[in-house]
Amino acid sequence: MSAPRIDHIGIIVDELEPAIAAMARMLPGAPLRRRSIPDAGLEVAEFEAANLIVELLCYTDRGDGFGRAVMGTTAGVNHLSLGVPDLDAALAALQAGGVEPMTGFPRRGAHGRVAFLPREPHTGLLFELCQPDDGQPTGEAST
Fold first, then answer.
1. CA pair distance 56, 54, nearest whole angstrom
2. Is the per-residue pLDDT at 135 higher than 60?
3. Average pLDDT for residues 105-115, to the nearest whole number?
4. Would you put residue 106 in left (φ > 0), alpha (ψ -120 to 50) or beta?
5. Domain 5-132 is in which class?
6. What is the pTM for the complete model shown?
7. 7, 67, 73, 138: least buried by Cβ within 10 Å?
8. pLDDT > 70? residue 3
9. Between 2 and 63, residue with greater pLDDT
10. Taking Cα atoms as reference points, which of 76, 77, 83 lies closest to residue 110?
11. Quick check: 142 pLDDT over 50?
């Protein structure tokens, strides 16, 4: 069995532009990709470091969007995304151990097919499983 791969860390921000400027100062030269995910009520800015992606997430809705319902409203580190080669197999293994994905998952995310799991009570983090789109290796700078 290979070591797990962290694809990205999701950070909720109140305002995207100041957060992008702050992250650009801390990760100089890191490529920036912006995405809009209207059905989740999110604008996303991704900084591609050599070893993982730092994802800044800013809500665009008025509080009733799918993204806010899944991830919550607290600014700061929100979720850890684990890259998996086969999302269905990873979910089946977790379900065999009693862990179910949140309602509405799996579904399309910013990086491929994703499934969020209920908030982990000991760390306070959400965990997301991500099966990247074809040609986009998980956890590498090309995603």
1. 7
2. no
3. 91
4. beta
5. alpha beta
6. 0.85
7. 73
8. yes
9. 2
10. 83
11. no
Please give the share of the chain, as a percent, with pLDDT higher than 90. 65
The tokens 């809009």 sit on which residue?
Answer: 36
Residue pair 71/126 in contact by the 8 Å Cβ criterion: yes
CA angle 49, 52, 55 (to 5 degrees): 85
Of the candidates 130, 134, 108, which has an alpha carbon nearest to the alpha carbon of residue 52? Answer: 130
User: Which residue, chain included where needed, has tokens 């991500």?
Assistant: 130
Assign 63 a pLDDT band (cuts: 50, 70, 90): low
19, two tokens: 């957060």
* Cα–Cα distance, 15 to 37 (Å, whole number): 16
Tokens representing 66 are 């799918």
Residue-wise DSSP of the chain: -PPPEEEEEEEE-S-HHHHHHHHHHHSTT--EEEEEEGGGTEEEEEEE-SS-EEEEEEE-SSS-SHHHHHH-S--EEEEEEEE-S-HHHHHHHHHHTT--PPTT-SEE-SSEEEEE-PPPTTT--EEEEEEEPTT--TTSTT-
